[in-house]
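Long-time lurker. I teach an intro course on protein structure, and each term I like to show students one example going from raw sequence to a predicted 3D structure in token notation. This year I'd like something fresh instead of my usual example. Would anyone be willing to generate the tokens for the chain below so I can use it in lecture? Attribution to the forum is fine with me.
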Amino acid sequence: MKESQRKIIMLLCAGAALVFVLAAFAMPRHSQTELPVSAAPRTEAVSALEGKYIVRDYGGRLAVYRVNEPTRPVYLLDIYTGALPEADRSALENGIVLHTEEELSQLLEDYGS
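-- Reply from a regular --
Happy to contribute to a lecture. Here you go:
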């Protein structure tokens, strides 16, 4: 009887592990290749003297662009702009220009918390 119980437990554990592995593969991956070109945001001309990064909404998520490449996000984060206050969403529509990596880190920390 103990041997059959052990086999059942081992089968249940193997099944659970298989479910977790399949779930991990089924989860969406966030990479540059997933960004649809047709959904690219506006491309306002921003002088390089004004800043280094622009943070904007991209398909309902927070995206970071380099000033010299305002059409292709460098980072696409799992921070959903719909959950942000209206004032923040409005600022993101225009794009938030940041001058340093420290400013970028601080802004992302603020939005992420």
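Some talking points for your students: The helical segments are 2-26, 86-94, 101-112. Residues 45-112 form a domain with the Alpha-Beta Plaits fold (CATH 3.30.70.1740).
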